[in-house]
Task: inverse folding
């Protein structure tokens, strides 16, 4: 076997994917593998076993992020590759999972061919990328970037009031702060697109230039509860009617301002059919490729909130819980991905990701870029998620070539604006 | 003590209220005493003890409704008085509870004065009037009226999937079908107003002529889930935006058509901040004093649903889960309440109840009417619920006088249209 013609073992990768797809499987093709759940533990245990079998030195840091290190010829900062193994509720099998398992396959392929690299390579499974169980998302990479403290992360609670730190201990993945990765030469994350563009334009590979900016809000509309059969409609302080009007108005505004707005969560309290709610709570997610546009929308949103509160005679509290500005990835790492795609003969498309990723935080501390695989119909965070084998194979091959190249490189100029 | 000047013992009634107000107490002044919960069992056990201490013969029927019988001089159909001891989540202390405890106080007062009545008197605590834990509401009185079967009632499930029949057995209140009350001479239910009219007009007593008609719907809006950062707004099939627009439109329609409309429950699935929902579910409660107006609104509602589904590119399913037409109470029973109010010197107001009550179903099988006590600010189903002592005393006195009168009467002409 010649090192020049080294190829990933796609059959082996497929088998690895299938093993992962059984852990937390729902409705045949879905995964329900929330961070720090029993299923997450089961997946972590298997991933650790795979890493050990591949000869990697395994470390767990203080928020449960898993690293597997393959030594280099020189003791230099490593190339980092990987993503996350947790999923949304009723999420898909591909998402970030392919990013971790392709990283593992790249290592296995290097072992097959006895490839030695100048720099060490580390593969990574970041804890709680999704933020579906513990908010906010991407807490583990955010910790590495200094965005969150360990105390903040450990004290996050899920909907049942269970604490992140305790759940981490319960599943046996509370490691140490000294195990965090420190100096990173470069980071490459593979992920599915989560949008329809690659499939629509018939491209093999998405070269991810950056990530949209995001703001999250928790809105509380406070009215006056009463029995459904009493107070006349026009005398009510009905938070549901205020919320419905506000959401409708914000949709129009988002269309006008060309931002993406999503209301993913909503609830009414006390929550009985025949009771006017006292409060209605809902979330707002706002995204744009342009920070100015996003901030402009937020100003209009706040104005509209004031107008609806006054019109509907309710109190509306808007809590700005999280913001992530637009991310620009590193041009040198992007150039490696481009040139390797070209030499492999893959068609590519430059993309700005609508979703956040761990690469967004790692980009703050090291030269970073991402590679997207096409997702059928652009479906993601859903049991219907599907990436065809042909694209998985191309994406895995590209990652292997990119990491080989990066692991032999000198230091890359790092500039936080990429 | 002369029987002619017999008076209820208001201090004793207040103490009884206070004992009830401790069982399931939340936030100082509220009650959270859902049907067939541990707190409901605790309240039932105490109420059974009180009935036994008052010399009543206690029976439990096959859906857990509790009866306490005081014998009459003749073995005739009894006069029935009472209401329900279950509450909404974070409900109040008064609601139907006063109807049960004033019935108990009427019996205790009769015992104090050794009053014998021609007919037996039975006091009643209907199971699950609220429908907050097991839908629909008023299942126990509906069973007596032939509206629901025992099998239907027993198979109802709460939000956690627990079955009514099993929960009834668990708390020890699964009695027998033969214990159901059969022939009822007349039924009088005392309840708080659940609206502001008595307080606003400064009246002591509400004489309840009937109950508004009600229809319940469960709406399911089905769209297409996806990540919040991908699909452009105008290409989404977003069930939340469709639901918000529909609710806003229906509010306008309800205002135009002079019906009462309430959306008390809403949820989005899968329910994550950064995921466009796949489905949004909400309830609709529509009420009117006029069945034609309510039915006319429902026709317009169905038209609007079709229009929004088409406009927003989603599927909307509207499941009509329950309807109760307008109720007219019995004129002879109402006349007894009127004349006793007059002789006691109480100011009264004729009212049509916006809320459903067990009296609505019992009205189908026996001469029935209701008495309302004023509620401060019209608040109900809320921890802030309050009926002032002066009104509680008048209401209790009136019930005592009304039941004395009815228990000596001949049969009352019964006509289902009242």
Result:
């Amino acid at each position: 076997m010649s090192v020049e013609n080294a190829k990933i073992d796609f059959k082996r990768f497929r088998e690895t994917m299938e093993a992962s797809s059984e852990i937390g499987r729902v409705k045949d093709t879905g995964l329900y593998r929330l961070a720090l759940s029993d299923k997450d533990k089961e997946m972590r245990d298997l991933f650790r076993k795979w890493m050990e079998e591949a000869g990697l030195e395994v470390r767990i840091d203080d928020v449960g992020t898993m690293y597997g290190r393959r030594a280099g010829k020189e003791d230099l900062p490593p190339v980092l590759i990987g993503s996350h193994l947790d999923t949304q509720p009723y999420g898909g099998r591909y998402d970030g999972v392919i990013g971790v398992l392709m990283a593992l396959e790249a290592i296995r392929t290097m072992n097959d061919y006895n490839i030695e690299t100048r720099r060490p390579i580390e593969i990574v499974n970041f804890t709680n990328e999704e933020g579906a169980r513990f908010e906010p998302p991407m807490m583990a990479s955010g910790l590495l970037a200094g965005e969150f403290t360990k105390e903040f992360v450990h004290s996050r609670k899920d909907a049942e009031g269970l604490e992140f730190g305790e759940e981490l201990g319960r599943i046996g993945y509370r490691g140490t702060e000294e195990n965090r990765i420190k100096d990173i030469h470069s980071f490459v994350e593979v992920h599915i697109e989560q949008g329809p563009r690659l499939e629509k334009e018939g491209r093999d590979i998405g070269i991810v230039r950056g990530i949209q900016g995001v703001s999250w809000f928790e809105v509380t509309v406070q009215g006056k509860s009463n029995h459904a059969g009493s107070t006349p409609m026009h005398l009510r302080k009905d938070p549901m009617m205020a919320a419905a009007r506000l959401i409708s108005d914000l949709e129009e505004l988002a269309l006008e301002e060309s931002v993406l707005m999503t209301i993913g969560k909503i609830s009414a309290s006390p929550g009985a059919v025949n009771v006017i709610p006292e409060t209605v709570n809902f979330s707002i997610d706002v995204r744009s490729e342009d920070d100015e546009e996003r901030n402009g929308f937020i100003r209009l949103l706040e104005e509209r909130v004031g107008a609806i509160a006054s019109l509907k005679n309710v109190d509306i509290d808007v809590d700005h819980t999280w913001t992530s500005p637009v991310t620009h990835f590193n041009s040198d790492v992007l150039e490696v991905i481009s040139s390797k795609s070209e030499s492999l003969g893959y068609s590519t498309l430059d993309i700005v990701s609508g979703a956040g990723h761990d690469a967004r935080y790692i980009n703050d501390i090291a030269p970073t870029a991402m590679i997207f695989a096409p997702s059928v119909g652009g479906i993601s965070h859903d049991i219907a998620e599907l990436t065809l084998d042909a694209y998985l194979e191309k994406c895995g091959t590209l990652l292997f070539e990119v990491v080989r190249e990066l692991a032999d490189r000198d230091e890359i100029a790092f500039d936080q604006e990429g």
User: Anything to note?
Assistant: The first strand of chain B starts at residue 25 and ends at 26.
